[in-house]
Specification:
4 copies of one chain form a homotetramer. By secondary structure, chain A is α/β, with parallel strands linked by helices. Chain A has 2 domains: 2-126, Rossmann fold (3-Layer(aba) Sandwich), CATH 3.40.50; 150-312, Dihydrodipicolinate Reductase, domain 2 (2-Layer Sandwich). Chain A has helices at 12-22, 42-45, 63-67, 80-90, 107-114, 132-140, 150-164, 194-197, 211-223, 257-264, 314-328; strands at residues 2-7, 27-33, 58-59, 71-74, 94-97, 128-129, 144-146, 173-179, 202-203, 229-235, 242-249, 271-273, 291-296, 303-310. In chain A, strand 1, helix 1 (12-22) and strand 2 form a beta-alpha-beta unit. In chain A, helix 1 (12-22) crosses helix 11, helix 6 packs parallel to helix 11 (314-328) and helix 7 (150-164) runs parallel beside helix 9. In chain A, 60% of the residues are buried. At the A-B interface, strand 8, strand 9, strand 10, strand 11 and strand 14 of A face strand 8, strand 9, strand 10, strand 11 and strand 14 of B.
């Protein structure tokens, strides 16, 4: 059994991690920390977990106790993993960080987008970006894994085959993304209230969202060079789900895009390339670690439209983190991640 | 008082027309027809209208009775207005058609997208496209007004100033649109059930939606030439609202876009150009005839992003129809359309 | 024109008051106060009001400025009206309080339920409970009007004719109530987040809700004696609306309940008694000041079931406040309150 | 492996059965029938099941093929099981019927509520009501199991301990129930459209719902005698979940109700009696077979309020059916039913 610690378990990614790990036959949660909820039983905060975690309580963060775990997940605001990672790595823990702390390889870019100096730049070289469909082998041997953000996961999986094949105009890519409200986390903000966020839809952060540099970094890797990207996130009136609608101009019109995508993801158990002409709905992946993708060329024109949907809390966060754990600990990639989405 | 008849009043545009006209001081509904509900009281079908239309019942369509009206609205499936329009025009009625029957100026294009021959091509020359912000003067003198579709309204109002100024690359425009479920009407389709459409988001008709030729026709007019447009509609889990996210490449970087939009819409009481940096939410126009628009150039790059929101049932249908009525009958453009959106 | 001041205008009842008063031909908002938002334009906080209140900003509360108003509405947390009312009444203002400060006639009961001493017990004798359907004449002459709570409005209007007729067992009344989330106000609480409150339903405060003593006080008046009431409020996954399902045992089986209710509310323009056998949906009153009521005796048994629906922000708060204003200032009771609910 | 056939698999209970059985290690779906969808692949209709049932298609109902199964589930409208059951039982199949066909023990009552004669009265004697918490032993030996309705499950589990202990006034019980829209099934009715059912709440069938006789039959068994019940179902704007709010008058005030409920359900793995003072939300059971119950006596008065929540599609239908299968085939009662509800 993998002995697991979770730092910062009171948010939505934390409670989803708990739920996934409860059903995972090779891992057990030994410790979950929360500064604000220390001493409170997990099921008091999360009544959905009654009968599952009745004996587990939140404890104040304690590096010594965490160091006794095989694996520590960070489900924290940015900056926390910077602080704790060096000591825990020294003690031999494997770290899987769901925050943004180690996603960007360039510490200056991190500082620019997060408004303070990077707290552990010495670890950037060995941090592995935890997108299994791109980095599977590196993840297997990593000590420090940075789980991708939710938008970056949906966008990169959707664009990767196209850019990697070198058949798109990389200078003008567009990612129009729609996210459920859980992407904003469990913070008590007025904008996330049911009365404000339901029955409405709006774009936000059009001038620059923190996921933009992360997506660009990934797409550069796919394209093998610079890319131009416009990324517009939208808040949609639903709990879960990301729908990325991706636009690019093809420069090679003879390539069979459907075959390209199907071949590219053949060995990836969590990416489902739909039949030509399909329109994936976010509900078809809700509660699962699956990404469903459909590729279109409307009226056989120059523009490719890729539709890519994920559950932002699973493939976009906690599910992807467990997928990384499986790879890192030599387990079947899909272990504990066989949840089937409900139709409704 | 304008004596009004409504053909096909049992759908969502019909019931919204009824509601708007009840509050309009210069019009009164004399007649509302429905083949399926003939004999049923309006308030039996629409209990929200109790106390307002207690004396009105649906009647079977009857050209003679309709001909006695000053103005007939069509809130019907396509094809019905084709059939009835010639006779009613002959009898001196003014017609405002909320269906697609007279929106496209080219009868062959109509036939291609609607799957049958156009039923009244002889009227195409005089049919006026009812987008007041473009066609105000023509509407004032029209006998037959074709109210624009919901997507076309949001997209055209958002793109118009940009294309009209000739500062965008017209060959590659993108309109990524999100609509509430009421856009699908009151038909009992499985896909519109709460259990299927809520808590989910998906694109549809990526390969070609009936509003595509209508939008293209309008944008050609704005641009004074051919345009290339990719239009992707999405179904969002809410009742009302359209959010159009529009992308274009600017070729003249010196132009002040904010000023351009503000000036363009100065005389248009229903278009509200938001301050630079804004993100309009669909709920800020819900229940009103307002279109709110914000213009962005993310990170001062080449791509312009225009956000345009309307209530699909009002500015995208029944409200716009009343706006046309006001213009046509020499009334204040805003008469009866002063509804203020609720915050929630 | 009635010169209106609003104290505490940043919540949902405040923004709804603003919206209603903008459409009211005999009142104008001269002043709106907010400690936290002083200096901010109303339309910055509430973009739905753009074009309507462009010139109005929140100001810090200032008794002198408020005293210059004919009428001051309190849309504040409890306790604030206690503090300001004495001075404003002295200066000749009429006060309409949407908070709970003057709803209970017994200062000790107030202290028990609100956890501190009543702050202005000397005003209790003259405070008039603002339920027009019960207190119409008293409201016309009141200086200080306490607008009823949302649950109390729906429950009292539903029970009143039955209890007043003396044909129910008053010892065991049940009010099972379901409310939209806006009843919890605009406070940023985790429980009101879309992610927590949508797609779920739960009871709360079963052991005692602050509206219980207010309802009991009203029902005692209706019954002319003591009543036994069980009141269970529920949070329903929607923005607006209260559905009260009321249960009582009839002791006089011959009485025609339908006729009783219809006669009782004959002179009340905002109460709509539905035909026998009806089931009012909350959406049929959304956005209006209407209360719709249906009376049932399932299978002709002893139990009466009354269904009573209102929009909690209108008939349950701001609409009722305007109704009180109309009565108090000698205007038509319905002035500015003719909004017709949308079907959807 | 239990060889399973499903009759009528295109509705919501059918697709949930498929999902549960896919994760069940001792059962496999050999056959699924649908008259309307015969020949269509299961994943074409239900894209959420891609990768799980890729090889399964709907077939026309065929008694011979069904007879080759160990177990046949009926997920059909009423009447279908009447027709097929006799032959399948003869051939040695076990039948678990999710429809209403065998829930009522009295064929005349069935005829009264379902509007036609009972189609297989000869089987009523041996049909076992599939509420495991009441009938566990009988289910183990049954050939024909009638899975309870969704409302009856929530109400019976909530009332049972109280009535069985003989400490309530059985003559006047009230069940005020709120259901998600999936309770209405996958039929394309206008009333179940998102535009009609979301953002609203209403009661329905106050004068008599088909689940009333079923609940009464169960409560009579619990009470050991006649009961008087008022049952009011409501449609709540959410996909899944039933919240039953139950009211009864206690006649023995000394009994510790909390202890009574906890003891009663000690051996029932799917009933979770919450700590005193709790308010279960429907979301805490969504996606699981759990029923959570809380018992209140507001202000220590005579009225007991029991709150009982289930997922109508699982404990109220398909989950309960699998629970019955487990018992009937000698498996662990919880096998394949360990899904943990998500917090959101």
């Amino acid at each position: 059994m993998i002995k697991v610690g979770i730092v910062g378990g009171t948010g939505y990614t934390g409670v989803e991690l708990l739920r996934l790990l409860a059903q995972h036959e090779k891992a057990e949660v030994a410790l979950i920390t929360s500064r604000s909820e220390a001493g409170i039983g997990v099921t008091e905060l999360f009544p959905n977990l009654r009968g599952v975690y009745d004996a587990l309580s939140f404890t104040a963060p304690d590096a010594k106790l965490l160091a006794a775990c095989d694996l520590v997940f960070f489900a924290t605001p940015h900056g926390v993993a910077h602080e704790l990672a060096p000591e825990l790595l020294d003690k031999g823990c494997t770290l899987i960080d769901l925050s943004a702390d180690f996603r960007l390889q360039d510490k200056d870019e991190w500082a620019k987008w997060y408004g303070k100096a990077h707290g552990a730049p010495q670890l950037l070289d060995e941090a592995v970006y935890g997108l299994a469909e791109v980095n599977r082998e590196a993840i297997k041997n990593a000590r420090l894994i940075a789980v991708p953000g939710c938008y970056p996961t949906a966008v990169q999986l959707g664009f990767w085959p196209l850019l990697n094949a070198g058949i798109a105009d990389n200078a003008r890519l567009i990612a129009d993304c729609k996210s459920g409200v859980s992407g904003a986390g469990r913070a008590a903000n007025v904008g996330s209230l049911l009365c404000e966020a339901s029955e409405s839809l709006s774009a936000y952060a059009v001038n620059g969202h923190r996921h933009l540099p992360e997506i660009r970094q990934g797409l550069r890797l796919a394209a093998g060079g610079e890319v131009g990207l416009t990324f517009v996130p939208h808040l949609a009136p639903m709990i879960r789900g990301i729908h990325a609608t991706l636009y690019a101009e093809v420069i090679d019109h003879k390539r069979d895009l459907q075959a390209l995508y199907e071949q590219h993801y053949q060995g990836s158990p969590f990416v489902d390339v739909l039949p030509a002409g399909s329109h994936p709905a976010t509900r078809t992946v809700r509660g699962s670690n699956i990404c469903r993708i459909a590729v279109h060329r409307p009226q056989k024109g120059d523009t490719v439209v890729v539709l890519s949907v994920i559950d932002n809390l699973l493939k976009g966060a906690s599910g992807q983190a467990v997928q990384c754990m499986n790879l890192r600990f030599g387990l079947e990639e899909t272990l504990g991640l066989a949840q089937i989405p409900a139709l409704l």
